[in-house]
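An instance follows:
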Amino acid sequence: MSVDDLPALNAALNATSAVLLVAGWRFIRQRRIRAHRRCMISAFVVSSLFLVSYLTHHAIAGTTLFRGTGLARTVYFSILIPHITLAAVILPLAIVTLRRGLARRLITHEVTTAEVGLRRRAEPRRERRARRLARGVEPDDRLERRRDEVRHG
């Protein structure tokens, strides 16, 4: 494998990671916790391989300057700058979320996931939580029930 093959490898690793993330999200929506866990761990591993391959490629091949001008240059940098910023921010968030998930600290795992914007229908969940609290179901009871669900699949 040469340095010229790394961009294609990077694309394949990125696509694989995206598929695994979507599959993991769908599994957790279906309450298939083990499948979710496997997909998310696999996505993290594949993303880590992508990062190594990406950094290797740029360490060997160097950088390429964008030579476009005018509107093309503006569009290019308006995409590139947020991309680099988000890529740097997502790494610690992914590590924290993975650690919380592996430690089965589900409430904090979900909070991190929500912070990244992956939680859907947040308002109805708050309403359901308020109804549970009104019925006298304490958050600690809910946490224990969720831990039991995870342990017993």
In short: The radius of gyration is 20 Å. The chain has six helices and no strands. The mean pLDDT is 82.
